[in-house]
Write a structure and sequence with these properties.
By secondary structure, the protein is an alpha+beta fold. It contains eleven helices and 23 strands. Strands 1, 2, 9, 10, 11, 12, 22 and 23 form an eight-stranded mixed β-sheet that branches. Strands 6-7-5-15 form a four-stranded mixed β-sheet. It starts with a strand and ends with a helix.
Amino acid sequence: METCDFLAVGGGVVGLSIARGLKRRFPDASVVLLDKEDGPARHASGRNSGVLHAGFYHTADTLKARFTRAGNLAWTEYCRERGLPLRACGKLVVAARVEDLPVLEELLRRGRANGVPVELIDEKRAREIEPRARTLGGALYSPSTAVVDPIACMAALAEDARREGVDLRWNTSYRGREGRAVRTSAGTIAAGFVVNAAGLYADRVARDFGFSSRYRILPFKGLYLYSDEPAGAFRAHVYPAPNIRDPFLGVHFTVTVDGRVKIGPTAIPALWRENYGGLAGFSASELAEIVRLQAGLFLGAGFDFRRLAWEEIRKNSKSVMTALAGRLADGVKASDYRRWGKSGVRAQLVDIETRTLVMDFVLEGDDKSVHVLNAVSPGFTCAMPFAAHVCERIAGMLNSCS
């Protein structure tokens, strides 16, 4: 039987970042990373917006608040060092109604508490930053919000991991636990410590190790609608003032690294974990499990799941998407938005005891394994400092056992 010191399951941004962190912290240890796909970032890490968030949406008592600002800085430095595409375009959060203005004030308060550069500006200044922005009474400006090419970032991250000594095994799927070992499609591996960063399947892997008893993954499908306008049509990201009770930020304008623009994303309840389009990835057992979970939320969620689901399902319509976007900016024409991008699926954790969506990072584990159960948006932005946090936790557990 093959052995290794650390085995990471999942080749997304979190799995790769943790594997690199472990190899740096334990240079003499063998670190193996496996993923069922043929390369990195085939799921959420390669299908996200690429936005490097600044860190003003979350309250200071959350791990997301702690890691978003640090992650923004880490990715910015990494992209500049590696010569990767980076557009430091900033973000405006605009008010469509008078009722939105207190929300902007709350985001300002959170940003300042988190040490994030953010300011409230008047309409004139907002127009100077983004001439097409529409806002009432002012806007929140985040100069440090940027955007990267997630595919290029992930390719660089995987290459760095390989060069640093992480044994990357693509086309190798996790098949289950066998005592102290892990069964894979390429044989059994006895690992000293297992890191579960399996994204959409993290709860399943965790249950093999006796964790995630109260949590399940609920997938949401995200789509962006791309504009045919030329590069430079927008200078900055434009977001609406969010409903801070909801888990999603609403339809917004994202400027891509090449200067084009897209609107979205949707957050449509998916019917199986890899429900990207058509029947690809269909699983009858996953469909049954997810429908049961969704039905439970419809009947008695700790939040207004019915309203949220209906609002998101409506966004399958291009006309609905462009109408929502038109509240944020001038000159939005449906004829410019005809092409959907490739879909992504958000691995959203649900607490089945409280029937609520879990909005912060969740880790469970012991001295033999750790399980990243929730790393939703802005998980990509947070990945590097979050990985350092996980590695520190692993080192602490191992030291306490030695």
